[in-house]
Amino acid sequence: MNILILTQDDPFYLAQQLDYLLERVPEGANIVGCVVFDVSPFGKKESIIEKALKTWRIFGNAFFLRYGMKYLRSKLSSSSKVEHVLEKHGIEKIKIEGSINSEDSLEKLKSYDPDLLISIAGNQIFKKALIELAPEGCLNLHTALLPKYRGLMPSFWVLKNNEDYTGVSVFFVDEGIDSGPILVQKKVKIENRTQEELIQHTKKVGMDAIIEAIERIREGGYELIPNPDKESTYYSFPTREDVNEFKRIGKRFY
Question: How far apart are CA 225 and CA 139, in angstroms?
Answer without folding.
Answer: 14
